[in-house]
Structure formats: C-alpha cells, structure tokens
C-alpha cells in the first residue's frame, strides 16, 4: 500500500494516512454480522472529519470476512482524487497485489512537462510551424451571411460570447439517425455535422470540406463526413 501511494501523484499531498485492519469473521458470529460491521464502518467513514492541518486527507480500512475474503474501504477528500483518478488508483492497487514489481510507474506531470519542453525546442515543432504558416499565408475569407439572416452585415465585436441554438428532434428521427450512423461506422455527431455542412454549403454556395474536417479533428476520428450519406 505504501509503495503504491509513493507512486501515485494524486496522494503526494498527503502526509498522514490512517490505515487500519479489522477481522470481522468469527465462528460464533451469525453470517449477517460481518455485513453489519461493514455498514458501521461505512457510517464511520461518512462522519469522518479530515485533519487538513496535518495533511490527513485519506482514510482506509481492510475488513477481513474470512481467510480469503477481504473488503477494502477507502475514504478520501474530494481535492485529492476524482473518479478517474480513483479508478487508476484501484487498478494500480490490484496490479501491485497480483503482479508486484511488474508494472513500472507511469510518467508523471513533471516528466511530461520536461518532454514537452524538449519537443518545443526540437526540429519537429519547427516543421509543424513552417507547415501551418504556409497554410495560412493567405487569410481565409469569412463565411458570407446566410440568406435568411436578419442582418445585412456582421458588426465588429469588442468581446467574445458564445451562443447556443437548441432544436428538438422527434424520437423517430433520432432512431433513424442512430441507425444510419451505425451503418456508416460513425457517431450521431458526425451525422449532424454532415447535415450542418450540407445546409451551410447549399445556402452559402461555398465548399466547406475544411470546416467539416476541423470538426472531425476535434473528435479524433478520420471519418469523411463530406461523403453524402444514404438518405434511407
């Protein structure tokens, strides 16, 4: 446990960990008794007050139900770990018991920062900058206004604000969109992005492949939504 905590950056801010072990199984106890003890331990965790002044942000218990059955309970302050961190922590904990010494500690934030700093000084980033400077050597024209726009020009903005337009689609249509997306090996987002691309392209009479590709780059997929989808 202590070795795992040393390798887990999420717990490096902790200077005190209360770890206790309790044996709940007994030949004289009813079978239901251990589970009552587990509930009592859970209630104790719920009412636990963390000693923040002394770094006490974690509390753990190992409850022994039998020789081969144990219950591991972990109580921690919300600033120490989130849900994803807890899943990683429990996975590493299981690995340390199943195959101790096999897995090596993963790269931490400091390692990543050092690697990124070296990358920014290397040739790869210079080649990337050169490429994108060539791509944007000629500024891209602004999209024209849609024909159904209520204004005739775009006023200059002094501040940036976001706008959200909401529309409700019938559940039957949503089901057809999901089925079409499944058949094309894409997600529903790609279908809606393609519909937006077609609407904008037909209304503005401009080619928006680059715009659609930018949307796909943000989702980490290579699906080509510029290809017309089956209307069925």
UniProtKB/TrEMBL annotation:
Alphabetical list of SUPFAM superfamilies matching this protein: CoA-dependent acyltransferases
Domain Condensation: 46-186
One of the record's GO molecular function terms: catalytic activity
Family matches, as InterPro entries: CAT-like_dom_sf (IPR023213), Condensation_dom (IPR001242)
Entry-linked Pfam families: Condensation (PF00668)
Name this protein carries in UniProt: Unnamed protein product
Protein's organism: Aspergillus oryzae (Yellow koji mold)
Lineage: Eukaryota, Fungi, Dikarya, Ascomycota, Pezizomycotina
